Amino acid sequence: MKDLDMRLISELMKNSRRSDRELAKVLGTSQPTVSRMIQRLQNEGKVKAYSMIPDFAKLGFSVMAATFIKTGTAMPSDVADALVKAVREVEKKRGSKVIMHVRGIGMGYDVMVVSVHESYSAYVEAIKEIREAASQRFEGVETFLADLHETKYDPLSMSKFADYLSMRAGRGF
Q1: 81 DSSP 8-state letter
Q2: Domain ranges in the chain?
Q3: 57-147 — its CATH code?
Q4: DSSP states of 25-47 as a string?
Q5: Mean of the pLDDT values across residues 17-45?
Q6: I want to staple 166 with a disulfide (CB 3.0 to 4.6 A). Which of 3, 10, 68, 80 is the partner?
Q7: In the predicted model, what is the mean pLDDT of residues 56-78?
Q8: pTM of the predicted model as reported, rounded to 2 decimal places
Q9: What is the average per-residue pLDDT within 56-62?
Q10: Which percentage of the chain shows pLDDT scores above 90?
Q11: Long-range pairs of 37-45 with CB within 8 A, sequence gap ≥ 24
């Protein structure tokens, strides 16, 4: 990946609301060049979306959960479909929202779910209903819960990663 591409991605991660003109000034290039680069990066799938980071506590969520699930063998598709449906229903009625769901490997688990919940009891009920929908096919579930009203935490942000990309771009890829 080109040095200028990486610097542009880094700047967009820090603040994607800046105009192409502002980005061009920071990068030392022209606005049309930045516009073309952004379009190309989007077309190549290197830039997937633009988003902001909310303050979950101020939006009424008090708990963030990182839940690790061991499914064992591959879930049959009907169980997986029921599970997805159950998660969507739980989100509607329990004051919970899944932020990220990903399959992977590590610590003996193969699924990680990051979610926010209005309360601890909303989290407990959500997990209970999701387990029931999966027909108890989970071999193990472990969760790390974070109190979103705790004032001493770094919020979810791409800015720190953007700084790393800027530094890395300066060294060349």
Answers
A1: H
A2: 3-53+160-171, 57-147
A3: 3.30.70.920
A4: HHHTS-HHHHHHHHHHHHHTTS-
A5: 96
A6: 10
A7: 82
A8: 0.70
A9: 90
A10: 32
A11: 37/4, 37/5, 37/8, 38/8, 38/12, 41/5, 41/8, 41/9
